[in-house]
Write a structure and sequence with these properties.
Number of helices: 9
Radius of gyration: 19 Å
Helix content: 55-70%
CATH topology of the largest domain: Tetracycline Repressor, domain 2
CATH class of the largest domain: Mainly Alpha
Distance between the termini: 41 Å
Structural class: mainly alpha
Strand content: under 5%
Length: about 200
């Protein structure tokens, strides 16, 4: 049963933060299809009017909450070593994106591909694509350092690690642990990136 929180008078950023936390927890518990403004307001300890003043639907509120939670999780990484860069990117995915209510909320949204394809595309483009762009940037920096041939950089190489991490999370109900992340880097991504390529390097995103 969704948690109900005693109403507390809050305003501004404090109220917004409470609403964002509430919608992520609510969709993680009840699922996307049962998400309502009433349930979100109850969990946030506020009335429905503050929600309706800003968002027309629970889906619009959820998108803003996801964007807020994911802000800054896909930034650039440059340790000077490609292996370490990739590990930092993948740890961010497991620790900041797939963990807790945020990971459950993302899973609930992505599971609606058949019913709400536009919503899934929005989540992918606004929130997940920056992670692939950041990985591409790290690969291009590594190429500039001579660690790999730039022509080997492709959509598949950039997406291989995140795809394996996501599948692991869906199948096992938890993100990969550190040893598994290292295996993804050492046995999949680095061999693919350093295996060479032909033709002109392509933009990935």
């Amino acid at each position: 049963m969704p948690e109900q929180v005693k109403k507390v008078r809050r305003r501004g950023q404090a109220l917004l933060n409470a609403i964002y936390r509430a919608v992520l927890a609510e969709v993680a518990e009840v699922g996307f299809r049962r998400l309502t403004m009433e349930g979100i307001a109850s969990r946030a300890g506020t009335g429905r009017m503050p929600l309706y003043r800003r968002w027309d639907t629970p889906e619009a509120l959820l998108l803003d909450a996801l964007a807020d939670a994911l802000a800054g999780t896909g930034g650039p990484v440059d340790t000077g070593d490609l292996r370490q860069d990739l590990l930092v990117h993948f740890r961010r995915m497991t620790e900041q994106v797939l963990a807790g209510d945020l990971g459950s909320a993302l899973g609930a949204v992505m599971g609606e591909r058949g019913r709400h394809p536009d919503l899934v595309v929005t989540v992918r483009d606004r929130m997940l694509r920056p992670h692939l762009a950041a990985i591409e940037d790290s690969l291009r920096l590594a190429a500039a350092r001579g660690e790999l041939d730039e022509s080997a950089i492709s959509t598949e190489v950039c997406a291989a690690g995140p795809a394996m991490i996501t599948v692991h999370h869906l199948i096992n109900g938890a993100p990969p642990v550190e040893a598994e992340l290292a295996a993804i880097v050492d046995r999949v991504v680095l061999p693919a990136a350093r295996g060479g390529g032909t033709g002109v390097a392509r933009g990935v995103i």
